[in-house]
Amino acid sequence: MSTSPSLPEVVMPSCPVRQLLRGQKALVTGANSGIGKAVAIHMAQEGADVVINYVANDAGAEAMVEEIKAKGGNAIAIKADVSNEEQVQAMFRRMFDEFGTIDILVNNAGLQKDAPFEEMTLAQWNTVIGVNLTGQFLCAREAVKEFKRRGVVPEVSCAAGKIISMSSVHEVIPWAGHVNYAASKGGVMLMTKSIAQEVAPHRIRVNSVCPGAIRTPINMEAWSTPEAYAELMKLVPYKRIGEPVDIARAVVWLASDDADYVHGVSLFVDGGMTLYPGFETGG
Ligand code: NAD
């Protein structure tokens, strides 16, 4: 009687227990506003030491540091423009001086410079690509160097490092009047997946989160009046706007060892915005 070859035994990694990010060092870009702020605070609550990167509003960044410390967490604020190579490298050096290393990078900083396509200036194009795409490249490159140098520290995490790219539903949904933004997020999608493919053998996990409409300063005109909110809801099958904490929870999970086998994915957190809501009534 033929016997099937025996499969190797599956050995589960021994993952640290709650808090989800205990002992980890995280850097969140654009962290003194909106989604980044919620992510940084949530990560600190889950036990990470957090770098609050920001480019404007020193007082806001320092207030966040104080808020996190008052709740028993640990954070520092570092000012740097993520689209500037020297400033990014200086930020990582400072982080390593203060915290020793990095375990989690959240590439969150982003902006919009909207214009009808034929009126879009090169400056508007370059600013959005520079922050949303090149900024993520510059930060991810520094993080990967450190992840590879240090490798896995099993008491800290199953992985040698985690990168979460803040993308958008506009990595797949075209967006008239926002060509630079949609191009930047489409770029983030393939950059994230390509980095993921390249660094996976080093136990570095790379994923992106794709928010739908989230209540932050970036899109205030889309939710701040009842009329605008009603229009927005036509695009959201779940019929509520997203809150920054909806994204923060997803980011924390992706960064944690609970998501240790999740790699190279775009996680849409959008109340169904990518479900073609125009077809809700049968098309
Ligand atoms: P926000 O404007 O509140 O936050 C963006 C942050 O990025 C700000 O703190 C800003 O100062 C910072 N930033 C801008 N340029 C920077 C630079 N050069 N260097 C460092 N930081 C810089 O908006 P948000 O909604 O919280 O956006 C956060 C991310 O989420 C962005 O990448 C955005 O594209 C993405 N996103 C947001 C939504 C939404 O509905 N709010 C939807 C999809 C994706």
Write up this protein.
With 283 residues, the protein is of the alpha/beta class. It has a single domain (25-271), classed as NAD(P)-binding Rossmann-like Domain (Rossmann fold), CATH 3.40.50.720. It contains 7 helices and 7 strands. The chain has helices at residues 34-45, 58-70, 85-99, 122-150, 179-199, 226-233, 244-255, and strands spanning 25-28, 49-54, 74-79, 104-107, 161-166, 204-211, 266-269. The protein has a 7-stranded parallel beta sheet with strand order 3-2-1-4-5-6-7, with helices on both faces. The protein is globular. The N and C termini lie far apart (58 Å). The model has no long low-confidence stretch (mean pLDDT 95). Residues 29-30, 32-36, 53-56, 81-83, 108-111, 131, 135, 166, 168, 211, 213-214, 216-219 line the site of nicotinamide-adenine-dinucleotide.
Brief overview:
This protein is α/β, with parallel strands linked by helices and 283 residues long.
Task: Map the helices and strands.
Blueprint: E1 25-28, H1 34-45, E2 49-54, H2 58-70, E3 74-79, H3 85-99, E4 104-107, H4 122-150, E5 161-166, H5 179-199, E6 204-211, H6 226-233, H7 244-255, E7 266-269
Parallel strand pairs: 1-2, 1-4, 2-3, 4-5, 5-6, 6-7
Bound molecules: nicotinamide-adenine-dinucleotide.
